[in-house]
Amino acid sequence: MPETAPNGTVPPPLDPGSIDITRAEPKTYLEVIFQSIKNHDPEIIKVWAGHVVETKEFWIDLGLIVVPLILAWIFSCLFNRAFDTGKLPSFAALRKKIFIRQQFKPYRIFLVLFSWLTLLLANSAGFHCPFLRTFTLIVTLFFLIYLPSVFIEWKSWMRVISALMLIAAVLQILGLLDDLIGFLNQHPIEFGSLKLSLMAIIKGLLTLFILFWLAGLFSRLISEKIASANDLSPNVKVLLRKSISIGLYTTASLLALAVMGIKITALAVFGGAFGLGIGFGLQKVISNLVSGFILLLDKSVKPGDVIEIGNTYGWINSLNLRYASVITRDNKEHLIPNEDFITNPVINWTYSNKILRVRVPFGISYQSDIHLATKLAEESAAATDRVVENPPPRCILEDFAESSIQFELRFFIEDPQNGVGILRSEVLKRIWDTFAENDIKFPFPQRDVHLRIADPVLRDHIVDSLNDDEKSE
Q1: Domain at 187-281: CATH code
Q2: How high does pLDDT run on average in the chain?
Q3: Is the alpha carbon torsion for 432, 434, 439, 440 positive or negative?
Q4: For an engineered disulfide with 278, which of 29, 255, 282, 392 has Cβ 3.0 to 4.6 Å away?
Q5: DSSP class of residue 3?
Q6: Residues 411, 395: Cα–Cα separation, whole Å
Q7: Whole-angstrom distance, CA of residue 124 vs CA of residue 110
Q8: Exposure string (b/e) for 4-31, b if CB count within 10 Å is 16 or more?
């Protein structure tokens, strides 16, 4: 890619025979290759290669690149062997103090050290060594860019950014970055009446990525500050966090569009099409978003509430713009669309307060003392953990049933998010133990069976058999 002069003219093509090969940089080699490809003349490369291979400086330069590769391999093998055999206790102690996520690779460190050492010695001896210098710079940049991944978790977007930084640095070292930027600026892409250069699109995408990352970072920091504010209700906290997050990401998007050179007025047609799409294809999504804001504003449900909607019973873990996270007692997390909270009946067990009444029915036999049973049942509930003292437990006589006297024990708890099944079980077990100690019987159905047998011989035989069984007992 030949450089363009400031006045817009293209400099004359290179003459391979007029270039000082002993001082030629890697950029010169690439320019000769590009010129040969552009002119469809492979003879240019042949002439240039013929001059290059005849110089001893070229071979010395390539040979010096091999030196740090071999030395780094030898020293890294010796280092690994010494470390594995326990001959480097100080380094092992240092690794324990410094958290290193990945396996330590000494080859990269030795390669950087020996590359610079070889370059310094070659320059001191009077060799120009452009290839060795370029190789040393690229190796050093690669080492420095990927060095943080040894100590911190290297996420996918970090790998992308580091790869782009490495590519840009290599292009700058080779002297091709300015040529590439000029090439991208000279080839715009048309979107109707809007023209964008490839460079503007790349700048916009990079700006959008960086601003989105900063928006997410500031959003998390602000969310932590809001979450620590004790004078705000949970709904207000969620509303503030979501509003600030939406504002930051919207601002980042507008700034990225400005960097790309796109005016907001140019998006009028797109905005109309987007609104039409919302009216048809995204109707449910927008409905859930609007319902999410309504839930946050009217405070009908909030994080921590124990609710029952449809067949789902649990406590709200979080409220989001599109859905609410409800965790059941089975530790299953249900993601319920916000629209369901608006259109369906919702039982909020903790809407006004967290005090909840629990009912435990039971029955006793007709031969038991109902007054004593009432007292013992109330005492059993009061002695159970999680049952509040005020209001106190109450045992109500509800019915004289067919084979039992039916009671209902009522008591209150203030932590319904912990469930009531286990609590009912504990109360019933206390009632069982207390009633057994005080001779209060639990009924069970009893029936009198009348047999009518027409055959007198068979009837007498059955009666005699039953009498014999009673005598044997």
Answers
A1: 1.10.287
A2: 77
A3: negative
A4: 282
A5: P
A6: 9
A7: 21
A8: beeeeeeeeebebeebebeebbbbbbeb
Tell me the CATH number for domain 353-473.
Answer: 3.30.70.100
- Tell me which architecture the domain covering 289-348 has in CATH: Roll (2.30)
* Domain boundary assignment for the chain: 55-182, 187-281, 289-348, 353-473
User: Which candidate, 100, 103, 59, places its Cα nearest to that of 80?
Assistant: 103
Cβ burial 59-88 (10 Å sphere, 16+ → b, else e): ebbeebbebbbebbeebbeebeeebeeeee
Highest mean pLDDT among 101-105, 189-193, 332-336, 459-463: 332-336
CA distances 464 to 43, 368, 454, 470, Å, are 126, 37, 16, 10
Looking at residues 151-165, what average pLDDT do you find? Answer: 65
Most confident of the following: 73-82, 246-255, 267-276, 366-375: 366-375
Phi, psi of 198 (to 5 degrees): -60, -35
How much is the pLDDT for 393? 93
CA atoms of 452 and 368, how far apart (whole Å): 35
For the whole prediction, is pTM greater than 0.70? no
Q: With H, G, I as helix, E, B as strand and everything else as coil, classify residue 439.
A: coil
